[in-house]
Structure formats: structure tokens, C-alpha cells
Design a protein that fits this description.
Blueprint lengths: L29 H22 L3 E3 L10 H4 L2 E14 L4 E14 L5 H10 L3 E7 L1 H5 L3 E2 L5 H21 L4 E5 L9 H14 L5 E5 L7 H8 L7 H11 L4 E5 L17 E7 L9 H11 L8 E5 L8 H22 L1
Parallel strand pairs: 1-4, 3-5, 4-6, 6-7, 7-8, 8-9, 9-10
Antiparallel strand pairs: 2-3
The protein binds zinc ion.
Length: 339
């Protein structure tokens, strides 16, 4: 009970990539880079194991960005002539690559790091992929002429990689869908169906991570404009509860999501964010256990997994490590108290 896991990313070592950045430049090239990514993956696994994390991940050491790290492996996308596009319903503008032809995978996306991680840990292993709705909101379309059609084309590619990750021995495959609280009406409409396409045929545990975004000013401004209570999830949780996705990951500590909404996720395992990734203040195990106690009012305790609010990629490495230890120790404290 109260297993601990992470949403996905961890800070990269400074010999691999620029520290403290959401979009770091690599500091190694070609074969050195490939080896460096694997070495960093091993460090990420070891750090999580030592911190008492039960379901470990690769820390996303091999990708520069959670969406574009996948898009690099997709043919049909023009990365050289990016265009400016409003992202997340025009919350901010970004230069995005353009889909110019039928989408196909160049090959495996995360084989090297998944197999390396699998070879070096006996714990449950989780890998993350961007969700189809979020991808479709992060590229421009000059080929499909229909956002939904394009999203399902991406879902097919995600499904191929997810099946391969399962064959690599991955226990949990998570799709990151920050777009789910932006296009609330489209989530029950087609967002969940696109996710179902992405998990088709999988027998491993599946998860979706949703969140209000962290780290960039546009997200902080947006959240400040949402008022005292963030109510977007109320609209999408009933649809998620009916879906075939096994787990839902979301923020709790220091967020303005009313915890009572979690009761709408009946039947799902809930990865509860007990670690704030937008603050450098390290949580105490006591605080972590308290969030778990608060969530127990709305989610059966056997369905609660302790997690980070979101990825930790842009954080200082020493702070992220201290927060991992707080996560592990807090989950352990909750087990002693509430199990
Ligand atoms: Zn997130």
C-alpha cells in the first residue's frame, strides 16, 4: 500500500545537458551522447531506489522535451521550418514543427533506455509517452486537415512504441496529457478514445498524467487567473473514471484542485502529487503523509500511490534528490500509520 513513484522526469546531470532548464542543450555528441544518456538513466534508477521509490522510471534522461523527444522519431514532420502557433487554447505561443505528410515511426523511440533500465532494476519500471491530444496541440498540421484525425495517427504510433515497451519488460506505461484540462469538452468527445487507441492491446498497467503545467511564466499566470479553486478536472474525471486507463496522476500538494473531485475517479488508482515541483522547499515526510491522509477521505487507501506533482526536469538536482527522499520516507510513514 502507498507505493511511491515519480511523474516522469528528473534533472539531468550537468555533464549530459545544461542544468536547470526545461529545454536543455546536450553537452555530449553522437556516440558519447548515446552512452551518456544510458549512464544518466542508471544514476536516475539508483537515486530512486535509494530514496525508497517503488515504481521507478528512467527519469527521461534520453529526451530533451516530453513531446519533442517523441516527435524526433516520427517521419512526416518538418522540424526545419517551424511556425508560430497558439498552444493550449492560446495560453502561450510557441514555434512548433509542421506535419507535412503521413506520420510513421522511424523505428523504436525509447528502446535503449527502457532495456537499460530494465536490466538494472528489479523494481517495477515505468516509462512515459506524450498523449495524443497533447501532441496534436503541440504541432501544426499541413497534411491531415483535421486535428482529431492527426491525433489518432499519433495514437497509432504511440501504441506501436507502447507495445514494444511492454515487450521490453516495462510494467507501467503513462501518457502525459496536460491538454486534458484545456479542452475539457473534447476529452469525453475524443481525447479518451485517442488514449484508448494508444493503449490498445496492452496488458501492462496504463496511466495518464494530467496537470496544470509547471515551470514557465505563461502557466503560472494562467493558474493565478483561475481563482481559488481549480475546477477543470470536475468535467473530465467522470470520463476518465469510465475509461480503460488504469491510473490517473495529478497534483495535490499546494495545488488548488479541490480534493473532493478525486471521488469522481472511482475505480482508478490515483497517483497523488505529494511533492511540489514548483517550489525549492523540500517537503517533510510528515507533510507527505498528511496529503495522503487528506486524500484518503476521497480515494480508497489501496488505490493511492504517492507521486510528484509533475516532472522535475528543470529543478536543481540536489533539491530534486532531497524531494525524492521525502517522497520515499513520506510514503513509508503513511504505510506505518494508515496501512
Ligand atoms: Zn505535469
Amino acid at each position: 500500500m502507498f507505493e511511491a513513484t515519480i511523474a516522469g522526469s528528473l534533472p539531468k546531470p550537468s555533464w549530459l545537458a545544461e542544468p536547470d532548464k526545461l529545454w536543455p542543450h546536450w553537452r555530449l555528441q553522437s556516440a558519447d551522447l548515446a552512452q551518456g544518456k544510458l549512464d544518466a538513466t542508471l544514476l536516475a534508477i539508483k537515486m530512486q531506489e535509494d530514496a525508497g521509490i517503488d515504481i521507478v522510471g528512467d527519469g527521461e534522461m534520453s529526451r530533451q522535451h516530453f513531446v519533442h523527444g517523441f516527435l524526433e522519431f516520427v517521419d512526416g514532420i518538418d522540424h526545419d521550418n517551424k511556425v508560430e502557433m497558439g498552444i493550449r487554447a492560446n495560453r502561450y505561443k510557441a514555434m512548433v514543427p509542421v506535419v507535412r505528410g503521413a506520420l510513421t515511426l522511424k523505428g523504436r523511440v525509447h528502446r535503449a533506455e527502457a532495456q537499460h533500465a530494465r536490466a538494472h532494476t528489479t523494481r517495477k519500471l515505468k516509462m512515459t509517452l506524450p498523449g495524443p491530444m497533447t501532441i496534436a496541440d503541440t504541432v501544426a498540421d499541413a497534411h491531415y486537415g483535421d486535428k482529431i484525425k492527426m491525433a489518432f495517427a499519433f495514437a497509432d504510433l504511440l501504441n506501436a512504441e507502447a507495445r514494444a515497451l511492454q515487450a521490453d519488460g516495462v510494467d507501467v506505461i503513462q501518457f502525459d496529457e496536460p491538454a486534458f484540462n484545456v479542452f475539457m469538452d473534447e476529452v469525453p468527445g475524443w481525447g479518451i478514445e485517442a488514449l484508448h487507441r494508444a493503449i490498445d492491446g496492452l496488458s501492462c498497467t496504463t496511466a495518464v498524467h494530467i496537470c496544470y503545467g509547471y515551470g514557465i511564466k505563461a502557466n503560472i499566470d494562467w493558474k493565478n487567473a483561475l481563482g481559488d479553486q481549480w475546477t477543470q478536472y470536475e468535467k473530465i474525471f467522470p470520463a476518465l473514471a469510465k475509461s480503460r486507463i488504469g491510473q490517473v496522476s495529478l497534483e495535490a500538494i499546494h495545488s488548488r484542485v479541490p480534493l473532493k473531485f478525486l471521488s469522481l475517479l472511482e475505480g482508478k488508482d490515483v497517483l497523488v502529487g505529494v511533492i511540489d515541483v514548483a517550489s525549492d522547499t523540500v517537503e517533510t515526510p510528515e507533510e507527505v503523509a498528511q496529503v495522503i491522509a487528506d486524500v484518503m477521505k476521497f480515494v480508497p487507501k489501496e488505490r493511492i500511490i504517492a507521486c510528484t506533482n509533475c516532472g522535475m526536469a528543470p529543478m536543481h538536482r540536489d533539491i530534486a534528490e532531497a524531494k525524492l527522499y521525502a517522497l520515499g520516507a513520506g510514503a513509508k510513514l503513511a504505510r506505518q500509520r494508515f496501512a
